[in-house]
Write a structure and sequence with these properties.
The complex is a heterodimer of chains A (268) and B (288).
Chain A: H1 22-38, H2 42-59, H3 63-70, H4 74-87, E1 93-97, E2 100-103, H5 104-130, H6 133-144, H7 154-184, H8 194-225, H9 244-266
Antiparallel strand pairs in A: 1-2
Chain B: E1 3-15, E2 21-34, E3 38-43, H1 49-56, E4 64-69, E5 72-73, H2 80-86, E6 87-90, H3 103-114, H4 118-131, H5 147-159, E7 165-169, H6 177-194, E8 197-202, H7 205-208, E9 213-218, E10 221-226, H8 228-232, H9 235-240, H10 247-257, H11 269-279
Parallel strand pairs in B: 3-8, 3-9, 6-7, 7-8
Antiparallel strand pairs in B: 1-2, 1-4, 4-5, 9-10
Helix pairs in contact in B: 3-4, 3-5, 4-5, 5-6
Classes of the chains: A mainly alpha (268), B alpha/beta (288).
Chain lengths: 268, 288
């Protein structure tokens, strides 16, 4: 049952977005987030929406997958929208009854907020859907590499992340085994009250932790045997090469960003 | 031929938390292994065979005595990477020695650490994967592979360093029979085709029977060191220290004890069949 969990939500394919250099994709995503949060007019949001729609379509991933990633956040979005709607007090008053007041400003802010967050999630899903976690880690390591000069442990962090990714399936499998073993000994994992189930989780977590420590120890020895000596002087098998299409994608993003700022300015 | 591994009067004790030496695990081991040899180290649990293996590439250093591998003293800290490149080690659990989520990147791990330039790394990774017959799986995730395949990836990761010698610490203990067969044939192939010295720590008698030389350990000492035939003819002695012999050897031994005239150096099924046929005067037994 635990085997069904997918981590990273990566959809292998060969769309133009999949083939972009991951470093560029991360930078582009940052510009995209800026774009969504700087312009505060309808037109700049519209520019953001067009950009999002474009990248979703180019990624070749079914639109319903994006809906799936937005769905869990809907209740949260509704609550914030409703709070903003009633609490913000600015501009024309549309409706007033006792202490409840709906104003133009309130409607603006709640609508903007909801649209922005939906776009934000959809847009960043494009990144995680089209880039495998390991590539993403690699790109982050390279983007952050200037920080090495400030003694920031970039390589170590990236190594930790990639080992964590490597061990997720192994540990899921192990958890499955432990659950079966504990069930065979009569532990109530799926049944019983919430508190009994919570207590029984301990019977799963303790063996899992112990075995993880043992694994970590063995892995460390195996890494030493293969001459691991930190990030100093390492070369890489995975080569990241930027190509014209990466610069074009970056250029398009910057143009959209500029458009969002300019339209917000002119159409005020 | 020159010795690649020279172990001289090796003593070893683990240190406890207070830094005191606890009981001796290795009690004066002397062992020379020649270049290109295929040696099995047999022994009961806790006899010190894994501890011995860990001395060959300096995961552990001797409390007393000397271990010299390819001319490098293992207690020389400054040449440790040179040593580990020359003597690679494969461990029991394939899951706990694979570092990367992509097969080919795991094979490249040691080369990345050693700072091998890209073109050469690419070539060595591809060659190693082809050598263990896993080239078509190079872009897979290790999680999708069977135990035997994972262990072959681990071997490829070592081969990529172009070592002179590989130490395998019970590499088949966690595998199914199919996986064991795959791994054993890969190891034999490395030994034969690349002339890599193999030290195979195992407790499977049939695996030991496939080697050139078998070293038997008991309680920190080497008690037998001979060809497989030579070692397995000491059935009584092996049984005393809690080891089995290959099934066919045991059968022959029982027959001999029961008064039949049968050679006592049988280690393969074919030999056993031949010997028993001879015993019955070449007549076919039963109806077939």
């Amino acid at each position: 049952m635990l085997k069904d969990i997918t981590i990273g939500q990566y959809f292998p394919s060969s769309s133009i977005i999949h083939r972009l250099d991951p470093r560029f994709k991360i930078v582009i995503t940052f510009i995209y987030i800026l774009m969504l949060f700087t312009g505060s007019s309808v037109s700049s949001l519209a520019v953001g929406a067009v950009y999002t729609l474009m990248s979703v379509l180019l990624s070749g991933i079914p639109v319903k997958m994006f809906a799936k990633s937005v769905k869990p956040l809907l209740p949260f979005l509704l609550v914030t929208a409703v709070i903003n709607l009633f609490l913000v007090d600015s501009g024309d008053i549309y409706f007033e009854w006792k202490f409840i007041k709906i104003t133009e400003g309130g409607i603006d802010i709640s609508v903007f907020m909801v649209v922005r967050i939906i776009l934000l999630i959809t847009g960043s899903s494009v990144l995680t859907y089209t880039t495998s976690p390991i590539t993403l880690t690699d790109a982050i390591e390279r983007l952050l590499s200037p920080l090495k000069k400030l003694k920031f442990p970039v390589h170590e962090l990236a190594m930790m992340m990639s080992i964590a990714l490597r061990f997720i399936p192994t540990l899921i499998e192990e958890t499955d085994k432990i659950i079966s073993a504990q069930k065979a000994r009569g532990a109530e994992i799926d049944t019983g009250s919430f508190t009994t189930r919570a207590k029984n989780m301990i019977a799963i977590l303790v063996p899992l932790f112990i075995s993880s420590f043992r694994r970590a120890d063995e892995l460390a020895t195996a890494m030493e045997c293969r001459c691991y000596n930190g990030g100093e002087g390492r070369t890489r098998l995975r080569q990241l090469k930027s190509s014209p299409k990466d610069y074009i994608a970056l250029g398009i993003t910057v143009i959209f960003y500029a458009a969002a700022i300019i339209t917000a300015h002119w159409l005020k | 031929m020159k010795n690649i591994i020279e172990i001289e009067n090796l003593h070893f004790s683990y240190r406890d938390d207070t830094g005191n030496l606890s009981a001796e695990v290795l009690k004066g081991i002397n062992l020379n292994i020649k270049e290109g040899e295929f040696v099995a180290v047999l022994g009961h649990n806790g006899c010190g065979k894994s501890t011995l293996a860990k001395h060959i590439n300096a995961i552990l250093v001797p409390t007393d005595g000397k271990v010299i591998v390819n001319g490098i003293d293992t207690s020389d800290d400054s040449r440790i990477f040179e040593l580990r490149q020359c003597a690679g080690m494969v461990f029991q659990n394939p899951d706990n020695q694979i570092v990367s989520s992509v097969v080919e990147e795991d094979v490249a791990f040691a080369l990345e650490n050693l700072g091998v330039p890209y073109e050469e790394m690419r070539r060595r990774v591809d060659d190693s994967l082809k050598a263990v017959n896993m080239y078509e799986y190079r872009l897979h995730s290790p999680a999708q592979l069977s135990g035997g395949q994972k262990q072959r990836i681990a071997i490829a990761g070592i081969i990529a360093m172009q070592p002179r010698c590989i130490i395998l610490d019970e590499p088949t203990a966690m595998l199914d029979p199919q996986g064991r067969k795959e791994v054993m044939s890969t190891i034999r192939q490395m030994n034969r085709e690349k002339n890599i010295t193999i030290v195979l720590i195992t407790h499977y008698m049939d695996e030991a029977a496939q080697c050139d030389r078998v070293v038997v350990m008991d309680r920190g000492n080497i008690i037998l060191d001979d060809t497989p035939k030579g070692v397995f003819s000491h059935v009584q002695k092996l049984k005393e220290i809690g080891l089995d012999v290959p099934q066919v050897t045991e059968l022959a031994w029982e027959l001999k004890n029961a008064g039949y005239d049968i050679p006592d150096d049988i280690i393969t099924e074919e030999e056993c069949v031949e010997a028993i046929k001879k015993l019955f005067g070449g007549k076919t037994i039963g109806s077939s």
